[in-house]
Design brief:
Elements lengths: L1 H18 L8 H10 L8 H4 L8 H17 L26 E5 L3 E9 L2 E4 L1 H5 L1 H8 L4 H7 L7 E2 L2 E2 H37 L4 H26 L7 H40 L4 H28 L4 H18 L1 H16 L7 E4 L2 E8 L3 E5 L5 E5 H4 L4 E3 L6 E9 L5 H17 L9 E7 L4 E9 L4 H22 L29 H9 L3
Helix pairs in contact: 4-6, 8-9, 9-10, 10-11, 15-16, 15-17
Protein name: MscS family membrane protein
Main location: membrane
Keywords: Cell membrane, Membrane, Signal, Transmembrane, Transmembrane helix
């Protein structure tokens, strides 16, 4: 019986010896684990933890190891050992400067890293030699004194938090509550000063945007203050990590909100500028620019949120790039249209309201969107032209014309006397010279040739009104005056017909029109033109 008991005692001691954690510096994972494990309450052996410190020995090395753990705990940095490399010849291939090094928290605490020296891994000499300065930057000067003056009752714990720490959190909240109202007025005044210094003008939209921008900026300042003072309460690591994660998420969300409001202010300023420009294409760019910048801010903010949950930014960006390429390949037309949109706004071949001819489409430009441009034809039908196609078309922008040209032929009867033709031409010229909507220095009214059923008088005139509706009204006015002149002179317009003329037929009279070509009468009619 004694032999059996002795056997089990030896077996249990062997198992305990096998499970005993030893100092292991063979790889980054083992070194960091050794450092932190031997500073836990249940396995507190600072001498073993100090063996991970390079360049220092004895009590000095132990003090550095303890301070290093406090720094990690104070900032809520919890090591995820599943992500720490476990092979001794680890080398960071993303940066040649970090070869044979491993940085625990490259974005939140890049000053702390382990490196390989010989065959073992230690906390680097650069880390350990600067540990005191790093400790002072995280823990305020009164942190240790605060621990000394707390009475014994203050160290009683409820849910892993001591009583004095609850009191400290309450005081910190009250201080933030008071600072909120003070900083809100100060930040708003600073923003107003900056706004007047940059653009020297203001309106209700900008004032409202600045007021909305003030609050998140104040919250960001208060969160910075909380993150600065929270380590002095020396909360447990698990609680600190949750609080800091929540604070970092809040910071990211508030920064997204701040940048969205900044985008709104910038777009409002650009909208005011666009209203002063002649073209309406700048006005159309306002919503497109706002949506684009808002999308960029939200996308970058989303990537930042992913990194807070342990996803590497490089991995996120690489994944986004691969996904972007896949989406681009799957939607080439959309990408082409987006590029076409950019080219339209850069080249500005037309503006909103311009009358254009693009291929078989003729009409007024109404909107320019991300994907297509809307053109309304004269019959009020709407054409949606993809911007990729529109950017490659030959666009005739009639909206950029200095004048609207109008050309037609006036056909008068073949039996019209030359005197009346000449008088009619002179009268039409005078009508054009006196018409308020035509150029009086560039027009043509000439007897241009002989048609199939009429004598042709060329009318070539330029209207100063560029709008299509105004042009039609100007044509109407000009046509009515020409018809009035023809009626006064007795000039008749020919029908497209064939006339058989019989010169001699007994007891029949010809159908020839009788014209009055008296010179005084003709001159009087022309003089009456206004």
């Amino acid at each position: 019986m004694k032999k059996i008991i002795l056997f089990f005692l030896l077996l249990s001691s062997t198992l305990i010896a096998q499970n005993e954690i030893k100092v292991d510096l063979s790889n980054p994972n083992s070194t960091i684990y050794t450092h932190l494990y031997f500073l836990q309450p249940n396995s507190y052996e600072p001498a073993k933890s100090a063996q991970t410190i390079y360049g220092f020995e004895g009590e000095e090395a132990e003090e550095i190891a303890i301070k290093l753990k406090k720094i990690l705990d104070g900032k809520g940095l919890k090591v995820d050992f599943s992500k720490v490399p476990k092979y001794g010849k680890f080398s960071d291939t993303t940066d040649y400067k970090l070869e044979n090094r491993y940085v625990l928290f490259p974005y939140r605490l890049p000053e702390v890293y382990v490196e390989r020296v010989g065959g073992n891994w230690y906390y680097s000499y650069e880390t350990t030699s600067n540990i005191n300065a790093l400790y002072k930057s995280i823990f305020p000067w009164y942190t240790e004194k605060l621990q000394q003056i707390i009475p014994e009752i203050g160290h009683k714990k409820f849910f892993k938090i001591e009583l004095w720490q609850y009191l400290g959190l309450l005081i910190l909240a009250l201080i933030c509550f008071g600072l909120f109202y003070i900083l809100k007025k100060i930040v708003y005044l600073i923003l107003r000063k900056l706004q007047f210094w940059i653009i020297r003008k203001s309106n209700d939209k900008i004032k409202l945007a600045l007021k909305k921008l003030t609050r998140p900026i104040v919250f960001l300042l208060l969160i910075w203050f909380i993150k600065r003072e929270l380590p002095s309460l020396t909360l447990p690591l698990d609680i600190n990590s949750v609080i800091f994660l929540a604070l970092n998420i809040m910071v990211t969300v508030f920064w997204i909100y701040v940048f969205l409001k900044l985008v709104r202010v910038i777009v409002d300023i650009y909208a005011d500028y666009a209203e002063t420009t002649h073209g309406k294409l700048d006005d159309q760019l306002v919503p497109i620019l706002y949506n684009f910048l808002k999308g960029v801010v939200i996308f970058v903010g989303f990537l930042k949120l992913l990194t807070l949950f342990g996803i590497e930014p490089v991995t996120v960006i690489a994944g986004a790039s691969i996904g972007g390429i896949a989406v681009a390949l799957a939607s080439q037309d959309t990408v082409k249209n987006l590029i076409g949109t950019v080219m339209i706004f850069v080249d500005k071949p037309f503006h909103i309201g311009d009358w254009i001819e693009a291929g078989t489409v003729v009409g007024t430009v109404e909107t320019v969107g991300f994907r297509s441009t809307t053109v309304r034809a004269a019959d009020t039908s709407v054409f949606q032209i993809p911007n990729s196609a529109l950017s490659e078309m030959v666009v005739n922008n009639k909206g950029l014309r200095a004048f609207r040209r109008y050309t037609t032929n006036l056909g008068v009867r073949y039996d019209t006397p030359p005197e009346l033709i000449d008088a009619f031409v002179k009268g039409v010229r005078k009508i054009i010279e006196l018409h308020p909507d035509t150029r009086d220095d560039a027009f043509n009214v000439e007897f241009s040739g002989f048609g199939d059923s009429s004598l042709l008088i060329l009318l070539n005139v330029y209207f100063v009104q560029l709008d299509w509706n105004s042009e039609q009204a100007s044509k109407h006015s000009l046509h009515m005056k020409i018809l009035g002149l023809a009626a006064d002179l007795g000039v008749e317009f020919a029908f497209p017909s064939t006339t058989v003329m019989i010169e001699q037929f007994p007891e029949k009279k010809g159908l020839a029109t009788k014209y009055n070509a008296e010179e005084k009468r003709i001159n009087a009619i022309i003089d009456k033109i206004k």
